Every structure is written in C-alpha cells, then in structure tokens.
C-alpha cells in the first residue's frame, strides 16, 4: 500500500460523477479520504475529493451543478488530466436509462458496464431529437474502447461473479446501515419497478406514475420475478449510447436498442472516451421513457458505485510513472520519464473526425502480427487523417513509446523530417551538418536498445522517392526504403500511407496492405453534418444524399464542399444545382483552394488538384496509362469495355502493365467480364486535368474515332456489342464541341441501333444531329447524307410523324434515283421505306404500287429468297391485309415466313416478325386458335431476343390480347392488354400511334366485360389522340370514330351514335373503298342503329344495352380486329 499521498502525481485513478447523488455515494465508498492537495487552480475549474480504494489512490470530481452533458464532461476530464498527470485510467460512474428487450432482461437497479461489441468500442455517440434525413436518431460514431487494463479487469471480475456472485448488495447494506442520512440509497420496493409498453406515455408531467399510470395494468409489460439463483441486481456488459439530450422516448429507445444492441442511455460518456481513457458504469434508474422514476436514482447510483469499487479491488496497483524507483525494487532499472518521450505528429486530433473502426482494427492487426501496416488508396480518402488519429490514440495507450512522424512525399521532405527527429533525440552527430541524418536516424531505429517507438511514414506516394524504381543507376540519392529499420518487434512498429498499391505491396513485406476507400453513406452524412458545423441545415428532401453521392463519398471532396457552402452563404441547394448542371461551376467548386490547416504545407487542398498530382505522376512514369486514363474519363464509367480503348500498337504485356498502374492508384476497377469502372468524380477530375493540360479536344477526338470505328452495323448478331457501346457513345459525344465526320458516323450508327431497340426519342435526336453535320460537312447530295436522311425518315415514321417522314423519304428517293439509278439496292430500299409510310398514312393504292415495284426489282436483282426480297414480300402482305385482301395476304405472309426461317433461322427477330404478321392475318380470318399459338410463339421469341420492353415485343403482347378477347378469354386479354399499354406508354410515349392502338384495343376488351365507364373513357382518349396525331381521315382515326359510335349506342345516345357512324362510314368509303372489310363492318353497324331509331318504344330502345350485350360484345371484338 502506498504512503499517504503528498503530490498530484501520486494519484493514478480518476473517478467522475455527473450529479450529486452519484458523487455522494462514490465518496462514501472510499476506504480512506485524504486532505485536499494544493493545485494550480488557474488551470483547473474542478473541485476534488481525494482518497483510496484498496491499493489505488483515487481522485473524484463531479460535474458543475446544473451543467450536464458531453461538453461539461469533457471539460472536467480535461482539467483532471492536466492536474493529475499520472492517471492510469478513469471511471465514469453514475445512473442511466435502461433499454430492456427480449434479448436483455434489464431491471431498475441493474448495472450496465461499457464493453466492446463487434466493431463498437463500448460507447456509441448518437444525435437524438433532431430530424436528420428523416431519421429519429443518427449514430455519429463508435468511440474508443476502455483501456486494455480495464477490459482485462472487467473480464476477470465477470468470471469471478459467475463463480461466486457479486458483493453489491452487501456493500450497499454496509453503507446505509452505518449512516442514517444515506437511506435513499436503499433498494426501493419491487412494486416500484414498472415497465410500461413503448406506446404508452406519461400523460401529465405534474403527476406521478403512481397516480395516473399504475391503474393501466393493460399497458404494463409482465415480467417473471427473478429467482434466488439469479444475481440481483444483474450486471450487463455491452454498448452504452451517449447523447447531449436525455432519452425520454420509448419507441426511439427500442429502435436504437434494436439497431445497435444498446443496453443503456446516458449523457456524458461520449465526451470522455476519446480523451479520458475510462470505463463507463451505469446503474439503471429508469427505462429511458416518459415514466421517470426518481425513487430509484439513489439505489442505482449505489449499485454502479459498488460495482466500480469491486472493479478497483480486482486491478493490481502499478508504479507511478514519474516516481523514483528504489534500488531494491524488482521493477526494471530503466524508467522513461514523459519529458524524454517524443511525439512528433504535426497535427492535433480532429474534433470532427469520423471514426472508421474496421480500418483502425486492420491497422492494429497489421502492427500486432507483422509490426507494420500500410494504408493505401486514392488521394483525399483520409489516409493521413486516419494515421493522425491512430497516432494520437497509440500515444495515449502507450505513453512510454515514441511516436515519430515523417513526411516522405519527396527526398527533401524526408531528409528534413529525419533532421528534426535526430535533433530532438539529441543523437550523437545530430549537430554536425556534414553527417547524413537519414542514416543516423536509421541506425538509431535499428538499434534494439532504443525504443519503444511507432514510426509513421506519411505521403509515400512517389516510386522514385520511396523505391528508386525509375531513377538512374547509380541513383543520385538513396530511396527511402533503404533507410527503413529492419529489426521490428511488438514495440518497434511502422505505419505507412501511400496512394500507390505497388508501393504498398513493396512496403508491407508480409500480410496485405489496407485499402482506404471512400466513406460509407452514413459516414459521409456524418462528416458533412459536422463540417457544416450545425450552422447549415441539410435539407430533408434527399438533396444531402444526392450531393454526397455526386461527391463519391470522398472525405476531402465532402470537406471541400462544406467549406465552399459555408463560405458562400450556406446556400445548400444552390451549390447542388450548380454542381449537377454546370461543368464550369463544378470545376470551380472542386478546384478552388480553401485553406485546410490539417494538411501538409505545399499540398493542394482541393480534390481536383490533389488528384492532379497522381495524374502528373502517372503521365511521367507511364504515358500509355495516362492516355488510357484520359480515354476512360470520356466514357460511361459504369462498364467500359476493355477492348474498346486498347491500342493495337501496344503489346498485351504493355497494356496489362498500364492498366496495373491505373489500378495501383485506385483510379479504376476491373470486373470479371473484361469491363472497367471509374467513379464519376474521378472522371471529372481527369477531364479537369485534360483541360488544364489543353488536351481535352485531342482525347475527345480520339475516343469518338474509336467508337465510330468499333460500333458495328445493326444486325441481330451484333446487338450485344451495340448495347454495350451505346452508353459509351452517348457519353463521349456530349464532350464534342462541334460534330465532325467521325461524330456524324457514330451518331448515325447509334440512331440506327436505337431505332432497332425502341429508343425512339433518343434515336430522333441523334439522327438529327448526324444529318445536320453531314449536310454541313459533305453536302445534301452525298451518299452518306442521303443514307442519314432516309434513316431520319424511318425514325420519324416509327414515332408516328408520318407527314415529315414522307417528305424526307421522297427527297431521299429522288436523290438516290438521280445519283445511283432506279435499280440500285439503296434506291429500292428507299422506295420500300416510302411505301411503308404511305401505308401508315392510309394511302393504300400508291403504297401498293411502290411495294410491287420494289418487290419486282428485288426479285430480279437479288433473287426470290434474299432477306431484302422477303422484306418486300412481308410489307406487301401487310398492305393487302389493310385492304381486306386476306387470302392473298396470308399466302404472301407464309412465303415470307418460310423464306426467313430458311435463311435466318426460326429465332431471328426478322423471322419472328413474319410469324407475328401471319398470326395477324389468321386473326382477321377468324382462325383464332392458330393465331393465338403463333402470337404466343412470337411473343416468347421476342422477349428472349429483344427484351420485355422492345416495341416489337409490345406489339406481340397487344395483338395477343386481341385474339384472346376474340375467344372470350377476357380476364387474360385484359391483363395482357394493360401490360401492352403500360409498356408502350413508357417506351414510345402516350401519343404514339402504337400506344393509341393499345388504348383503343383495351377499351374494346373492357366493353366485352361490361366495364363501360372505363371503356368509354379510353375510347375517347384514343379518338382524340388519333385525330391529333394521325389526322381526321386516317383509317385508325375512323376506327376510333366507329367504336365511339358503338359506345354511344350502348349508352342509349342514339342520335350521337348516328352522327359518328355517318362520319366513319363516309371516311371509310373515301379512304378504303366500299369493298373493304372495315367499310362493310361499319355499314352493318350503321344499319342496326337505324333499325333501333325506327323502333317506336323509347324504353326498349334505351334498354338495348342491357338486353343485347352478348351480341354487342361479339361486335366489339370484331371492331377491334378491323
């Protein structure tokens, strides 16, 4: 047992209480209480009690009255540490709110002790009562664990309790039995421990729970009474949640307890754990809800203090760090005083630091197992900040160890750091300017007599400086690696930071280097909140998440964004809008140099300029890698085909080496399917670098040429390649300031593929740009321009813009006839395309004439089985179907189908088109079962070959719905028709002719199911759309007029029905002729209406919709097929 203390340095344990109740019982549990010591009160605002528990000299302090929470606890601990330099550890002992659950049977009076769980150190810090991205609470970090000595003692005491039980009740009984003034520390009656359901709140703050809550037995949670074999109070080990606000919400309590496995809530520990190494011990006085229970506070404070006393008894006393050791002592002869310990980290701890527990653990594991650890990753991801924080924590845990910091970005900075350290260590020769200080320090580090120490080598980014790989032989200076100590041990360790994986692999020696990537979304959110210093509220509409995603969760980028927002008035949304929509604003935001005192002097503070250092380094070491990096920055970063950017002049080995350089700097990643990925923020940074180097246009030209050369023609076997290159082409083209010949070529190919794949809006935009560029560069009469003009017309046709499409296709046909002649395949193709537009416009006679000319020319030029000939056969068959010539149309459809099967195979999209068209003509002839079978076969093939949302797939879906309705399969017909309508609305838009056709067909199916109200609404929308898009006299418009007339008739609006029938019939006769099936069908319906009008019984006329619906269903289905 030590002598009666006379100096502040004699005290080795600090005990902190938050309130008077806790402080009183702590003082009463001292074995001896000593007189106060004279202290420097100018630097310490605490008032202390001094004493002894077992062999430990303990100093006790309480937070100022009325000043509770994290800040006050931090201040008390800070002053205590300053006045008592020999404290080995601390204890934070008092009361807290319990978090009972099905997993943890926590009762009032139980004790909770902070211990690590998973990646959490024992105490987590959270923010509560403040809406943060729509969350009731936000975990803001896991704090440092208790010192190893305390954790070992807690484990020992827990084992002892399991074997023999604890002495808490005896300690409390001895305390209160001997002092009548301490009766409030006795245990209250068991009936006073009531746990209410989380949803039941205390209604009146002015009344006690006993008065207004106890009668509500239904709102209490029934719990089994603890038996004699159960420790009571129980001791629980695990996580304690700490915030600056009292937890009084049982539902939030339960949510946080479930999410984090929290046992207890309190208000001080988060202010201590990272600066005051301690254990947190809490007696449970309430259940962290609205039912506060002051009667348990005294007993809960006593149970916590009694446990803390048992813990101290378990811990052996240690020597005082600065006390002289007697000669007879068995302790080691060498005792290092604090004044001789070097701590050369050039930065203090960051109060806004966001802990990265998994990385810290990996560093600890690396140092323990291999005596060295290497942090590597992209610049700005926080490697140095992690090293700074780790160094401070290491110094706290190992106060006897030197912590030496060397900045190794260049030879000169490395040498300067070595000079300073040798001087501080006062090594022999450190005053001699002729000596090599790097070698001097290296020899000292390699001497096993010197230590313990941790050496941090920060900024080891340059191959030449660190490894000497690119310097001439012999090198003008030795690389840093030659000066590193070889003789390492558990007390002589190395920690490195570098941007290069190659350097990391060289330095780690054994084990695996530790990659430091961007933050998780939660970590990024926390950093942004802290960096905005609670002055600026992050909007709760998700814009905070959006900004963090755009910033790639990179710490330096987030820090820079927060500084920019603060500096410019706190306009959060304004910053985000500028970042998203303006490249120049984004470049300014991410390149401006805002002062950051936590970075090395001379280092850039912006993310763009930070990464520029890496790009410059790559350019110098591996120019081919820099070129690859530049090309990748102009492509879609999600899936860049590796083959696309391969330089055919380079060998496979050279290419692998260059990609390795990029991967080494964590600038891109490689997937298994030979594709590469690069984060958008990295791409932005590379483009900024290219602009700074005035090479942006050069690489835009290169990447567009690459894509124009590699984008294949649109054939079925090329679909996968086209699909993979489409996002690359779209991305690259946006950087081309003025479209040139290669750009026009790429736009043409891209638009052709988008037409084939159903991306019609994008196809029109791209073909327009291609046509404008080719017209400007090559002139209107060039073959390339005419090819794009014809494609332009086809795309407009697909979008239902028939008038403009016809005009363009006629111009293309006239020019091709003049330049190539009437019999050239391109001329014939243009003639065929024009005929299809005329058919879509209902100009059947002119269309038939052109189709027959195109077919005859192709049969003569290409033969009867050529795919182009079969296309003409198919198109003529479709026209004959429109004209009501079903038998002739069926014969041609079968010829086209058999020919396509033979030349292209049964699963080719062109073959499936012929199959689908044959099913249409069979439907028209009432051969519904055969038609259904073919439609299902075509639908399945198209889904597999083209995808679920391709226009051709949706066409099959739509027409399958029609043939199902014709067979009375109304439920399936409705489901299929709705799918087709939704798909077309999404794929081609609500005003496309195909969408309007689906709208009309669904209405007819609904009529068949007596769903007249919805059917009439859809029919009206289809008619209005067709009048607007196709014109008043288009056959499809007239079909909608006829169907609306039928709806009027069903509703008893006979006069309105008659007017619509007359309009439709007049249009059909004019456009299709008297003999067309649509004309005949409309005539029949009109005659039936006239018969209804001649009926003198008005009531019977109005009831026609009810009496004859089955007949009308059949007519509705027939109308849908015309």
From TrEMBL:
<dbReference type="GO" id="GO:0003824">
    <property type="term" value="F:catalytic activity"/>
</dbReference>
<protein>
    <recommendedName>
        <fullName>NACHT domain-containing protein</fullName>
    </recommendedName>
</protein>
<dbReference type="Pfam" id="PF13374">
    <property type="entry name" value="TPR_10"/>
</dbReference>
<dbReference type="InterPro" id="IPR019734">
    <property type="entry name" value="TPR_rpt"/>
</dbReference>
<dbReference type="InterPro" id="IPR011990">
    <property type="entry name" value="TPR-like_helical_dom_sf"/>
</dbReference>
<dbReference type="InterPro" id="IPR007111">
    <property type="entry name" value="NACHT_NTPase"/>
</dbReference>
<dbReference type="Pfam" id="PF05729">
    <property type="entry name" value="NACHT"/>
</dbReference>
<dbReference type="InterPro" id="IPR027417">
    <property type="entry name" value="P-loop_NTPase"/>
</dbReference>
<feature type="domain" description="NACHT">
    <location>
        <begin position="373"/>
        <end position="534"/>
    </location>
</feature>
<dbReference type="GO" id="GO:0009116">
    <property type="term" value="P:nucleoside metabolic process"/>
</dbReference>
<dbReference type="Pfam" id="PF13424">
    <property type="entry name" value="TPR_12"/>
</dbReference>
<dbReference type="InterPro" id="IPR035994">
    <property type="entry name" value="Nucleoside_phosphorylase_sf"/>
</dbReference>
<dbReference type="InterPro" id="IPR053137">
    <property type="entry name" value="NLR-like"/>
</dbReference>
